[in-house]
Amino acid sequence: MPEGIKLGVLALTCVAASCAALMPSAALARKPQPSAPTHELRCLFNDSHFHLTNYVQQGTDMGKYVDEIMGDKVCRSTVFGIPLQQTWSYGNSGDFAPTYYLQSDAPLYYYSFTDAYIASAYLKLRPDQRRRLDPMITGFNPADMYAVDHIRRVLETYPGVFTGIGEFTIHKEFVSSKVAGEIASLTDPALDRILDFAGEVGLAVILHSDIDMPFAKAGAEPVFLQQMKDLLRRHPQTMIIWAHIGLGRVVHPVQGQATADTAERNPAYRDLVEAMITDPTLSHVYFDISWDEVAKYAVSSPGSIENTAAMLNKYPERFLFGTDNVAPKDQATQLRVFNMWDPIWAKLTPEASLKVRTGNYARIFDAASARVRAWEAKNVK
Ligand SMILES: [Zn+2]
After folding, report:
1. Helix H segments across the chain?
2. Strands (DSSP E) found in 192-267
């Protein structure tokens, strides 16, 4: 990790409302002493995208996650499971118990108990551990008009716990087509109901939807881009984080190349994202750069490093770092994705680096949490 981003200055970067939550528990327990060791105030990032459990609902103990895996390196973190459960079909894989969606042909199904599991684990934590987490509701089917009722019920059952909804998924390579039942769509009114309700309550939204089909041809307009923009524009009151900027394992960034049959050049991915950032009808949209697959694209060449760093320096308030780790076993695993970004961190201004790593998280999730608590105070009896 470059020396320049080692954080001795975190305390200076948080606004008053979010400072307490950014500080490790030791610092919260007493008034900060001028002579307090500075390591208490250091952290590398806040994790805007973190799965505690995997596709078979197994994972890391939440207390261990805070104390040992976040430790003094990650100040704050979202925390959610995965709404989809991989079926273990004996007819398909026999004695082999799949734990990942690529390990079986059997379907995935929505496992709503994930929200109760996350809430009850959260409620068992010490207050200083809770202050560092933002639990998210994920256990709903976005193709179901009743999904919004699930979200409301979770808030009513566990007031004081959740900050947002997501990561939930509309289009995802290899996954969407395995989900049992109705196929999710960006044009489904069920999704509009969910985003309307999130806007009303103040829930932050982490939405995964690939921008394109897998293995798309260079030069073609990403197939889901227009639908995505239309959806986002229908919900200007909702704070939406677009997970992975729409990228995936085989959903590559668009290349700025002409196709054989058209003279028109499509804008490169950078231009496409920049057009969204500068569009005033999309000012409520943020971009999460989580997942090692995204990091791979970002650091794939000197040109890509340069372009990505330039984008983050130009619009630092619109991007959030996250790991997208799933049930990590130790801190080294948790930090691996962060370290993949080292060549880019080294090129960011101190201001941009702080916003992307910690500041935007604090601003967005603190605002969401305050609004959700206010909604609960009014609506949960
Ligand atoms: Zn994820």
Report:
1. 10-13, 16-22, 25-28, 62-64, 90-93, 113-123, 127-130, 147-157, 189-201, 225-233, 269-277, 292-298, 302-314, 331-340, 342-345, 350-354, 360-379
2. 204-208, 240-242
136 alpha carbon – ligand 1 mean position (Å): 12
Tokens 């528990």, residue? Answer: 25
Using the mean position of ligand 1's atoms as its centre, give its distance from the Cα of residue 29 in Å.
Answer: 33
Mean pLDDT over 71-96 rounds to 95
**Cα–ligand 1 centroid distance for 371 (angstroms):** 24
pLDDT of residue 328 exceeding 60:
yes
The mean pLDDT value for 72-87 works out to 95
Q: How far away, in angstroms, is 42 Cα from ligand 1 center? A: 26
What residue spans define the domains of the chain? 3-379
- pTM for the whole structure: 0.85
Q: Which residues surround ligand 1, an ion (CB under 5 A)?
A: 167, 324
Q: Are 49 and 288 in contact (CB under 8 A)?
A: yes
Structure tokens at 65: 């996650």
As a whole number, mean pLDDT of residues 223-249 equals 91
CA of 49 to the centre of ligand 1 (A): 6
When mean pLDDT is compared across 38-42, 43-47, 303-307, the lowest value belongs to 38-42
Question: Does the pLDDT of residue 26 top 50, yes or no?
Answer: no
- Measure 172 CA to ligand 1 centroid, in angstroms: 11
pLDDT of amino acid 18: 42
CA of 381 to the centre of ligand 1 (A): 33
Dist. CA 28 → ligand 1 center (Å): 30
Tokens 């959700």 correspond to 372
Ligand 1 centroid to residue 105 C-alpha, Å: 21
pLDDT at 169: 92
CATH top-level class of 3-379: alpha beta
Spacing, Cα 47 to ligand 1 middle (Å): 11
